[in-house]
Every structure is written in C-alpha cells, then in structure tokens.
Amino acid sequence: MKTPSPNRYKVAPWYRQFWPWFIIALPTIVVAASLYTLILANLHADDLVIDEYYKEGLAINLLLERDAQADKLGLHAELYLSGQNQLQIGARVQGDIQASQLMLRLSHPMEAAEDRELILKRVGDEDYMTTINTPLSGNWYWILDAGDSSTWRLTGEQRF
Fold it and tell me: How much is the pLDDT for 33?
C-alpha cells in the first residue's frame, strides 16, 4: 500500500486564498462608497432650509401685511427678459406707484448662491428695467418692492 506524500495535501496560507480577500473586499468597498457619498453630500448640500427659521416665522405677519397692501393699491407686476445688445430684465407694474426705482429680489429654488438683488430704474409710465450680466434660465421666485422701508410687495414665480 502506498502512503500519500505530505506535499500532496499541503494548503496554501490564508493570504494566498481567494475567499478571505473576497470577504474582506465587500465591507471595504461599502465603507469607501459611504465616505464618497458623505463627501458629495457635504460639497453639494441643498439650501432649502432657512438657518434662522424662528425669526423668519415671526416676520411672516409683516410680509402678509405688505402683500395685502399691494392688493389694496391694485398693484400687479409682470417680469420679462429682453436682450438686443445687453440682457435686460424688466417689470411692468400696473397701479399707482410714484417710485423712481424698485428692488427686485430673484431667488433660485435650489441654489442660494444664485440669488440676486437688482435695482430696477423707471424707464416709462409702468416700466422698470436693469441690465444683468449673466443669463437667467429655469424657474425663479421673485419679490418686487420699493426698497427696505416699503409698505407693499409683490411676489411671484417666473420661468425664464
């Protein structure tokens, strides 16, 4: 009877086997993907939540009073873009306004860094205009008033 040689059943060490490395690789890949997702989430965070929500909540009644005052005055506004040599944004305001300029605040729905404040100068009986540097596209929320001490405001949403 033959005796088996001892080298015939010799097993390679664990670090030369496929399955231990496969089992180690799975959680390693999950940890790396989680860290990558965390970094992406922090770099491209949404600006949908107001930092000082309590103060904003207290001021909502003042804002509603300004909206009601615009209704009493019969004010209506329509925004438009025009651009021959320059890109211009304008507002046609119907109602009794004596202001020589208006403040237009454009708010991007997703990116606070895109928000803009523009001063519109009167160019006609109902028209106010200003020049802007960069084109606007997509949906924007807007607030139009006569400045910080204004007793009225108009709000709306515009697709450019």
Answer: 97
pTM of the model: 0.61
Structure tokens at 82: 């025009």
pLDDT in tens, 87-99: 566 666 766 677 7
User: Would strands 101-107 and 139-145 be described as parallel, antiparallel, or unpaired?
Assistant: antiparallel
The three-point CA angle 42-139-102 to 5° equals: 105
Q: Which residue, among 87, 83, 85, 78, has the nearest Cα to 127 in the 3D structure?
A: 78
What is the residue whose two structure tokens read 């790396």?
A: 32
CA geometry: angle at 78 spanning 76 and 82, to 5°?
155
Write the CB contacts of 110 (distance below 8 Å, at least 6 apart in sequence).
46, 47, 48
